[in-house]
UniProtKB/TrEMBL annotation:
Belongs to the tRNA(His) guanylyltransferase family. Its EC number is 2.7.7.79. Its cofactor is Mg(2+). This is tRNA(His) guanylyltransferase. Keywords: GTP-binding, Magnesium, Metal-binding, Nucleotide-binding, Nucleotidyltransferase, Transferase, tRNA processing. Mg(2+) 2 binds at D29, D76. Coiled coil: none annotated.
Length: 291
Protein backbone atom coordinates (compact mmCIF):
# COMPACT_ATOMS: atom_id res chain seq x y z
CA UNK A 1 0.00 0.00 0.00
CA UNK A 2 1.37 3.40 -1.00
CA UNK A 3 2.10 5.93 1.66
CA UNK A 4 -0.07 8.99 1.48
CA UNK A 5 0.23 12.31 3.23
CA UNK A 6 -2.85 11.32 5.21
CA UNK A 7 -1.33 8.30 6.77
CA UNK A 8 0.00 10.12 9.83
CA UNK A 9 -3.54 10.09 11.28
CA UNK A 10 -2.92 6.49 12.27
CA UNK A 11 -0.71 7.83 15.02
CA UNK A 12 -3.80 9.15 16.78
CA UNK A 13 -5.00 5.59 17.40
CA UNK A 14 -4.55 4.60 21.02
CA UNK A 15 -3.09 1.23 21.88
CA UNK A 16 -5.31 -0.29 24.51
CA UNK A 17 -4.08 -3.80 25.27
CA UNK A 18 -5.52 -5.41 28.37
CA UNK A 19 -3.09 -6.55 31.05
CA UNK A 20 -1.32 -9.81 30.23
CA UNK A 21 -2.01 -12.95 32.21
CA UNK A 22 -5.39 -11.78 33.51
CA UNK A 23 -8.87 -13.23 32.98
CA UNK A 24 -10.84 -10.90 30.74
CA UNK A 25 -14.55 -10.66 31.41
CA UNK A 26 -16.73 -8.94 28.84
CA UNK A 27 -20.18 -8.21 30.23
CA UNK A 28 -22.86 -7.17 27.81
CA UNK A 29 -26.23 -5.79 28.88
CA UNK A 30 -29.42 -5.09 26.96
CA UNK A 31 -30.01 -1.37 26.41
CA UNK A 32 -33.33 -0.19 27.73
CA UNK A 33 -34.72 -3.69 28.17
CA UNK A 34 -37.18 -2.40 30.74
CA UNK A 35 -38.96 -0.63 27.89
CA UNK A 36 -38.25 -3.36 25.35
CA UNK A 37 -39.63 -6.12 27.59
CA UNK A 38 -42.83 -4.11 28.06
CA UNK A 39 -43.17 -3.38 24.35
CA UNK A 40 -42.80 -7.05 23.36
CA UNK A 41 -44.88 -8.20 26.31
CA UNK A 42 -42.33 -10.37 28.08
CA UNK A 43 -43.97 -12.45 30.78
CA UNK A 44 -43.43 -11.29 34.35
CA UNK A 45 -41.30 -11.73 36.28
CA UNK A 46 -39.47 -14.14 33.93
CA UNK A 47 -40.02 -14.85 30.28
CA UNK A 48 -38.65 -18.27 29.41
CA UNK A 49 -38.56 -17.45 25.68
CA UNK A 50 -36.45 -14.35 26.33
CA UNK A 51 -33.97 -16.26 28.50
CA UNK A 52 -33.73 -19.14 26.03
CA UNK A 53 -33.01 -16.61 23.27
CA UNK A 54 -30.27 -14.97 25.38
CA UNK A 55 -28.76 -18.42 25.96
CA UNK A 56 -28.90 -19.36 22.28
CA UNK A 57 -27.13 -16.12 21.34
CA UNK A 58 -24.60 -16.69 24.15
CA UNK A 59 -23.84 -20.22 22.94
CA UNK A 60 -23.40 -18.91 19.38
CA UNK A 61 -20.81 -16.43 20.67
CA UNK A 62 -18.97 -19.27 22.46
CA UNK A 63 -18.96 -21.25 19.21
CA UNK A 64 -17.53 -18.35 17.23
CA UNK A 65 -14.81 -17.46 19.75
CA UNK A 66 -12.83 -20.50 20.92
CA UNK A 67 -10.77 -18.37 23.32
CA UNK A 68 -13.84 -18.00 25.54
CA UNK A 69 -13.85 -20.56 28.34
CA UNK A 70 -17.15 -19.80 30.02
CA UNK A 71 -20.16 -17.51 29.97
CA UNK A 72 -22.82 -16.69 32.53
CA UNK A 73 -26.18 -15.12 31.76
CA UNK A 74 -29.04 -13.62 33.76
CA UNK A 75 -31.88 -11.28 32.79
CA UNK A 76 -30.68 -9.10 29.89
CA UNK A 77 -26.97 -9.56 30.59
CA UNK A 78 -24.22 -12.03 29.70
CA UNK A 79 -20.66 -12.25 31.01
CA UNK A 80 -18.09 -13.88 28.72
CA UNK A 81 -14.73 -15.03 30.07
CA UNK A 82 -11.64 -15.04 27.87
CA UNK A 83 -8.87 -17.34 29.08
CA UNK A 84 -6.03 -15.43 30.75
CA UNK A 85 -3.59 -16.68 28.09
CA UNK A 86 -5.60 -15.39 25.16
CA UNK A 87 -3.69 -13.36 22.58
CA UNK A 88 -6.76 -12.72 20.42
CA UNK A 89 -6.65 -9.24 18.78
CA UNK A 90 -3.45 -8.60 20.76
CA UNK A 91 -5.82 -8.34 23.76
CA UNK A 92 -7.13 -4.99 22.52
CA UNK A 93 -10.09 -4.06 24.71
CA UNK A 94 -12.23 -2.47 22.01
CA UNK A 95 -11.86 -5.41 19.64
CA UNK A 96 -12.45 -8.07 22.30
CA UNK A 97 -15.57 -6.25 23.49
CA UNK A 98 -17.08 -5.06 20.22
CA UNK A 99 -16.71 -8.47 18.57
CA UNK A 100 -18.71 -10.07 21.37
CA UNK A 101 -21.36 -7.33 21.38
CA UNK A 102 -21.94 -7.46 17.64
CA UNK A 103 -21.82 -11.26 17.37
CA UNK A 104 -24.27 -11.59 20.25
CA UNK A 105 -26.62 -8.92 18.86
CA UNK A 106 -26.60 -10.47 15.37
CA UNK A 107 -27.60 -13.86 16.70
CA UNK A 108 -30.16 -12.37 19.10
CA UNK A 109 -31.92 -10.60 16.25
CA UNK A 110 -31.52 -13.49 13.79
CA UNK A 111 -32.90 -16.06 16.27
CA UNK A 112 -35.67 -13.82 17.61
CA UNK A 113 -38.43 -15.27 15.32
CA UNK A 114 -37.65 -18.80 16.56
CA UNK A 115 -38.36 -17.77 20.14
CA UNK A 116 -41.03 -15.12 19.51
CA UNK A 117 -42.80 -16.43 16.41
CA UNK A 118 -45.86 -14.26 16.97
CA UNK A 119 -44.05 -11.08 17.94
CA UNK A 120 -42.11 -9.50 15.06
CA UNK A 121 -39.35 -7.03 15.88
CA UNK A 122 -40.32 -3.44 15.18
CA UNK A 123 -38.21 -0.63 13.77
CA UNK A 124 -37.49 1.82 16.54
CA UNK A 125 -37.46 -1.00 19.10
CA UNK A 126 -34.46 -3.06 18.05
CA UNK A 127 -32.58 -5.06 20.68
CA UNK A 128 -29.14 -3.54 21.25
CA UNK A 129 -26.45 -4.26 23.82
CA UNK A 130 -23.61 -2.40 25.46
CA UNK A 131 -20.39 -4.04 26.63
CA UNK A 132 -17.36 -3.53 28.82
CA UNK A 133 -14.19 -5.48 29.53
CA UNK A 134 -12.70 -5.97 32.99
CA UNK A 135 -9.49 -7.85 33.90
CA UNK A 136 -9.34 -10.14 36.91
CA UNK A 137 -5.83 -11.14 38.00
CA UNK A 138 -6.61 -14.31 39.95
CA UNK A 139 -9.00 -17.23 39.71
CA UNK A 140 -10.28 -16.14 43.12
CA UNK A 141 -11.20 -12.71 41.72
CA UNK A 142 -12.80 -14.28 38.67
CA UNK A 143 -14.87 -16.67 40.77
CA UNK A 144 -15.90 -13.82 43.07
CA UNK A 145 -17.03 -11.86 40.02
CA UNK A 146 -19.18 -14.79 38.82
CA UNK A 147 -20.48 -15.37 42.36
CA UNK A 148 -21.45 -11.69 42.50
CA UNK A 149 -23.54 -12.08 39.34
CA UNK A 150 -25.19 -15.31 40.59
CA UNK A 151 -26.02 -13.75 43.96
CA UNK A 152 -27.53 -10.83 42.03
CA UNK A 153 -29.64 -13.32 40.08
CA UNK A 154 -30.85 -14.89 43.33
CA UNK A 155 -31.65 -11.58 45.05
CA UNK A 156 -33.40 -10.04 42.04
CA UNK A 157 -35.35 -13.19 41.26
CA UNK A 158 -36.52 -13.65 44.82
CA UNK A 159 -37.72 -10.06 44.95
CA UNK A 160 -39.31 -10.05 41.48
CA UNK A 161 -41.04 -13.41 42.00
CA UNK A 162 -42.42 -12.30 45.37
CA UNK A 163 -43.52 -8.96 43.92
CA UNK A 164 -45.38 -10.53 41.01
CA UNK A 165 -46.88 -13.25 43.22
CA UNK A 166 -48.41 -10.55 45.41
CA UNK A 167 -49.83 -8.85 42.32
CA UNK A 168 -50.90 -11.82 40.22
CA UNK A 169 -51.99 -14.21 42.98
CA UNK A 170 -52.53 -11.82 45.88
CA UNK A 171 -54.43 -9.20 43.88
CA UNK A 172 -52.32 -6.33 45.20
CA UNK A 173 -51.45 -3.05 43.49
CA UNK A 174 -47.76 -2.47 42.75
CA UNK A 175 -47.42 0.07 45.60
CA UNK A 176 -48.91 -2.26 48.16
CA UNK A 177 -46.71 -5.16 47.01
CA UNK A 178 -43.66 -2.95 47.27
CA UNK A 179 -44.58 -1.91 50.81
CA UNK A 180 -45.26 -5.51 51.82
CA UNK A 181 -41.78 -6.58 50.68
CA UNK A 182 -39.93 -3.57 52.02
CA UNK A 183 -37.32 -4.62 54.59
CA UNK A 184 -38.04 -8.36 54.30
CA UNK A 185 -35.27 -10.96 54.16
CA UNK A 186 -35.17 -13.99 51.85
CA UNK A 187 -36.89 -16.27 54.38
CA UNK A 188 -39.72 -13.82 54.85
CA UNK A 189 -40.12 -13.40 51.08
CA UNK A 190 -40.33 -17.19 50.73
CA UNK A 191 -42.99 -17.22 53.43
CA UNK A 192 -44.97 -14.44 51.74
CA UNK A 193 -44.85 -16.31 48.42
CA UNK A 194 -45.89 -19.56 50.09
CA UNK A 195 -48.94 -18.03 51.80
CA UNK A 196 -49.90 -16.56 48.41
CA UNK A 197 -49.81 -19.98 46.77
CA UNK A 198 -46.29 -20.12 45.30
CA UNK A 199 -43.55 -22.46 46.48
CA UNK A 200 -40.30 -20.76 45.45
CA UNK A 201 -38.45 -24.09 45.54
CA UNK A 202 -40.54 -25.24 42.61
CA UNK A 203 -39.55 -22.31 40.40
CA UNK A 204 -37.39 -23.20 37.38
CA UNK A 205 -33.66 -23.42 38.03
CA UNK A 206 -32.98 -21.17 35.02
CA UNK A 207 -34.79 -18.38 36.91
CA UNK A 208 -33.12 -19.05 40.27
CA UNK A 209 -29.56 -19.79 39.11
CA UNK A 210 -29.14 -18.17 35.71
CA UNK A 211 -27.27 -20.03 32.96
CA UNK A 212 -23.65 -21.09 32.76
CA UNK A 213 -22.18 -22.05 29.39
CA UNK A 214 -18.97 -24.02 29.05
CA UNK A 215 -17.31 -26.45 26.69
CA UNK A 216 -18.16 -30.03 27.41
CA UNK A 217 -15.50 -32.25 25.90
CA UNK A 218 -17.60 -35.31 26.60
CA UNK A 219 -19.99 -33.94 23.99
CA UNK A 220 -17.11 -33.63 21.55
CA UNK A 221 -17.08 -35.82 18.49
CA UNK A 222 -13.95 -36.90 16.60
CA UNK A 223 -12.65 -34.24 14.23
CA UNK A 224 -12.80 -35.49 10.67
CA UNK A 225 -9.59 -34.97 8.75
CA UNK A 226 -7.97 -33.29 11.73
CA UNK A 227 -4.57 -34.83 11.02
CA UNK A 228 -4.42 -33.25 7.53
CA UNK A 229 -5.43 -29.86 8.84
CA UNK A 230 -2.88 -30.14 11.59
CA UNK A 231 0.00 -31.18 9.33
CA UNK A 232 -0.70 -28.40 6.84
CA UNK A 233 -0.64 -25.93 9.73
CA UNK A 234 2.80 -27.24 10.65
CA UNK A 235 3.97 -26.97 7.05
CA UNK A 236 2.77 -23.41 6.67
CA UNK A 237 4.37 -22.11 9.84
CA UNK A 238 7.50 -24.14 9.10
CA UNK A 239 8.61 -24.02 12.70
CA UNK A 240 7.43 -25.19 16.03
CA UNK A 241 9.28 -22.83 18.31
CA UNK A 242 7.69 -20.97 21.15
CA UNK A 243 8.11 -17.26 20.62
CA UNK A 244 6.96 -16.13 24.02
CA UNK A 245 8.43 -16.05 27.49
CA UNK A 246 5.06 -16.76 29.08
CA UNK A 247 5.41 -20.18 30.74
CA UNK A 248 2.10 -21.64 29.58
CA UNK A 249 2.30 -20.47 25.97
CA UNK A 250 1.70 -23.32 23.55
CA UNK A 251 3.38 -23.86 20.23
CA UNK A 252 1.48 -22.72 17.14
CA UNK A 253 0.68 -26.33 16.28
CA UNK A 254 -0.63 -27.10 19.72
CA UNK A 255 -2.66 -23.86 19.71
CA UNK A 256 -4.26 -24.81 16.40
CA UNK A 257 -5.06 -28.26 17.69
CA UNK A 258 -6.57 -26.83 20.85
CA UNK A 259 -8.67 -24.34 18.91
CA UNK A 260 -10.08 -27.12 16.78
CA UNK A 261 -10.99 -29.29 19.70
CA UNK A 262 -12.67 -26.30 21.34
CA UNK A 263 -14.68 -25.58 18.22
CA UNK A 264 -15.79 -29.19 18.05
CA UNK A 265 -16.68 -29.54 21.71
CA UNK A 266 -20.33 -28.96 22.44
CA UNK A 267 -21.30 -25.87 24.42
CA UNK A 268 -23.24 -27.03 27.43
CA UNK A 269 -25.82 -24.87 29.22
CA UNK A 270 -26.58 -25.54 32.88
CA UNK A 271 -28.57 -23.80 35.58
CA UNK A 272 -26.55 -24.69 38.64
CA UNK A 273 -24.56 -23.26 41.52
CA UNK A 274 -21.24 -21.79 40.37
CA UNK A 275 -20.44 -20.19 43.73
CA UNK A 276 -19.44 -23.36 45.61
CA UNK A 277 -16.25 -25.28 44.76
CA UNK A 278 -18.06 -28.33 43.40
CA UNK A 279 -18.84 -26.89 39.97
CA UNK A 280 -15.17 -26.03 39.40
CA UNK A 281 -13.70 -29.17 40.97
CA UNK A 282 -15.80 -31.37 38.73
CA UNK A 283 -14.84 -29.45 35.59
CA UNK A 284 -11.14 -28.64 36.01
CA UNK A 285 -10.60 -28.11 32.28
CA UNK A 286 -12.68 -24.92 32.22
CA UNK A 287 -10.10 -22.73 33.93
CA UNK A 288 -7.04 -24.74 32.95
CA UNK A 289 -8.14 -24.02 29.40
CA UNK A 290 -6.54 -27.24 28.24
CA UNK A 291 -8.74 -29.88 26.72
P1 LIG B 1 -30.00 -0.21 30.78
O1 LIG B 1 -29.40 -1.57 30.95
O2 LIG B 1 -29.41 0.76 31.72
O3 LIG B 1 -30.01 0.26 29.37
O4 LIG B 1 -31.57 -0.31 31.19
P2 LIG B 1 -32.49 -1.61 31.30
O5 LIG B 1 -33.88 -1.14 31.18
O6 LIG B 1 -32.06 -2.68 30.34
O7 LIG B 1 -32.25 -2.09 32.81
P3 LIG B 1 -31.45 -3.31 33.44
O8 LIG B 1 -30.50 -3.94 32.49
O9 LIG B 1 -30.90 -2.85 34.73
O10 LIG B 1 -32.62 -4.34 33.79
C1 LIG B 1 -33.11 -5.28 32.89
C2 LIG B 1 -34.56 -4.99 32.55
O11 LIG B 1 -35.00 -5.97 31.63
C3 LIG B 1 -35.48 -5.04 33.74
O12 LIG B 1 -36.32 -3.89 33.76
C4 LIG B 1 -36.35 -6.25 33.54
C5 LIG B 1 -36.22 -6.53 32.06
N1 LIG B 1 -36.22 -7.96 31.82
C6 LIG B 1 -35.16 -8.77 31.60
N2 LIG B 1 -35.55 -10.05 31.48
C7 LIG B 1 -36.89 -10.04 31.60
C8 LIG B 1 -37.89 -11.06 31.58
O13 LIG B 1 -37.62 -12.26 31.39
N3 LIG B 1 -39.19 -10.69 31.78
C9 LIG B 1 -39.51 -9.38 31.99
N4 LIG B 1 -40.80 -9.07 32.16
N5 LIG B 1 -38.62 -8.40 32.02
C10 LIG B 1 -37.33 -8.73 31.84
MG1 LIG C 1 -27.95 -1.22 33.29
MG1 LIG D 1 -30.20 -3.60 30.48
MG1 LIG E 1 -29.41 -5.78 33.01
MG1 LIG F 1 -11.20 -4.96 8.67
Amino acid sequence: MANSKYEYVREFEQAEPLLKNTWIVVRIDGRGFHRLSTKYQFEKPNDKRALDLMNAAGAAVMNELPDLVLAYGISDEYSFVYHKDTTLFERRAAKLTSTIVSTFTSYYVFLWPQYFPDTPLLLGMMPTFDGRAVCYPTIGNLRDYLSWRQVDCHINNTYNTAFWTLILKGGMEAREAEQTLSGTNTGQKNEIMYTNGLNYNNELEIYKKGTVLYRDYELAHPIEGSSEILSSAVASTGTDTIASSLPEELSKTAQEKEKKSKRKAGVKAEHIDIIKDEFWQRRPWILSGRS
